[in-house]
TrEMBL record:
Catalytic activities: a 5'-end ribonucleotide-tRNA(His) + GTP + ATP + H2O = a 5'-end phospho-guanosine-ribonucleotide-tRNA(His) + AMP + 2 diphosphate + H(+)
EC number: 2.7.7.79
All residue ranges annotated as the Thg1 C-terminal domain in the record: 200-315
Entry protein name: Probable tRNA(His) guanylyltransferase
Subunit structure as annotated in this protein's UniProt entry: Homotetramer. Interacts with MFN1 and MFN2; functions as a guanyl-nucleotide exchange factor/GEF for MFN2 and also probably MFN1.
Binding site for Mg(2+) 2: 138
Entry similarity comment: Belongs to the tRNA(His) guanylyltransferase family.
Cofactor notes: Binds 2 magnesium ions per subunit.
């Protein structure tokens, strides 16, 4: 449909390994609540069994069975659920497009982008050892510290904790960004774990995603201007853009809509990088002096790490010089 320019960073895709499940085997996926001992306590679950919690788990499992294909049985107890996929499953069903159904504005819905970033921030704060995250469109990539020993480096733990934390955050924070617009059905996110052995491979991976962001956003910006302001139908716009190079697209934007692409918002052109930033927090602390009744207020400065969003170039050297700690061991 679209003639996509391929960036020189494409090669990093070859680091994705084939994780096809062995034929003729039952595929079982077991989910288990992360740190639910604490979750149950903080949400005052009745002991030993909170039926509200059990019923909610079952409602979620039911949604999973309805949303995904080929699950033949699910079994739940406590904070866990096991899903058994048909032996001959060849699953991948496509649901009606989420963006369309929720009337995302085109080409970029900032509510959706900012919600994605809020979720990614929650993931970084909740989970361990994430040094940088990069997001664009409906995707986010999370890079873990090279020497992380989180869950003894089990790939499935990394993937499921990130995906589920992200998905639940999306629902949790939805109304902060979409106000009274109703979330129509439970959204889901797929994930994959990819290992990049060298710093260069990792940088090329992020460059690849950012190049993808640029290529898609340039296309979408012209496309939707042609439709929204130029009065073309979507198929006429497709037709007009077929085979065009980025220079042509810049030219259409400028001559027909007086838009200089370079002045479009950075968040749309560059995507979003989340990094840890050290900040000095000044707080007052009340301390009780031993052997005395008196309380004393003291001023303490402590360094805290905070997740910060950046919309900048990741391809050149500048970012990596400025944030050299990311690639440090
Ligand atoms: P991990 O992240 O390793 O799974 P966890 O805290 O979730 O840690 P689990 O072994 O999974 O530990 O135990 C789940 C905990 O959640 C139990 O301690 C149980 O008390 C609590 N819990 C889960 N569901 C319910 C429920 N329906 N009613 C009461 N308590 C519950
Ligand atoms: P898959 O499940 O294979 O990923 P998909 O429908 O999610 O299928 P993608 O290639 O991931 O397909 O494309 C995401 C789609 O979501 C794009 O078509 C884009 O139009 C839409 N989209 C995502 N984020 C936004 C946003 N912030 N504003 C507008 N549209 C968005
Ligand atoms: Mg457990
Ligand atoms: Mg648990
Ligand atoms: Mg459990
Ligand atoms: Mg998608
Ligand atoms: Mg996508």
């Amino acid at each position: 449909l679209r003639t996509m320019a391929k960036s020189k960073f494409e090669y990093v895709r070859n680091f994705e390994v084939d994780d096809t499940c062995l034929r003729n085997c039952w595929i079982v996926v077991r989910l288990d609540g992360r740190n639910f001992h604490k979750f149950a306590e903080q949400h005052s679950f009745t002991k030993p069994n909170d039926d509200r919690a059990l019923n909610l788990m079952t409602r979620c499992a039911q949604a999973v069975m309805e949303e995904l294909e080929d699950i033949v049985i699910a079994y739940g107890q406590s904070d866990e659920y096991s899903f058994v996929f048909q032996k001959k499953s060849n699953w991948f069903k496509r649901r009606a497009r989420f963006a369309e159904q929720h009337s995302f504005t085109k080409p970029n819905d900032d509510r959706a982008l900012n919600l994605m970033t809020r979720c990614a921030q929650a993931v970084m704060e909740e989970l361990e050892d994430i040094v940088i995250a990069y997001g664009q469109s409906d995707e986010y990539s999370f890079v873990f510290q090279k020497k992380s020993n989180w869950f003894k480096r089990r790939a499935s733990k990394f993937m499921t904790h990130v995906a589920s934390q992200f998905a639940s955050s999306y629902v949790f924070y939805w109304k902060d960004y979409f106000q009274d617009q109703t979330l129509l059905y439970p959204p889901g996110f797929d994930g994959r774990v990819i290992l990049y052995p060298s710093n260069q491979n990792l940088r090329d991976y992020l460059s690849w995603r950012q190049a993808d962001c640029h290529i898609n956003n340039l296309f979408n910006t012209v496309f939707w201007n042609l439709v929204q302001k130029g009065g073309l139908t979507t198929s006429q716009a497709e037709e007009k853009l077929r085979g065009t190079l980025s220079g042509d697209k810049n030219e259409i934007l400028f001559s027909e809509f007086n838009i200089n692409y370079n002045n479009e918002p950075l968040i749309h052109r560059k995507g979003t990088a989340l990094v840890w930033k050290k900040i000095d927090e000044i707080t007052t602390k009340t301390i009780k002096l031993t052997n005395e009744e008196k309380e004393k207020e003291i001023v303490v400065t402590r360094t805290r790490k905070k997740v910060t969003a950046l919309h900048c170039d990741l391809i050149g050297e500048e970012f990596w010089e400025e944030h050299s700690e990311i690639l440090e061991d």
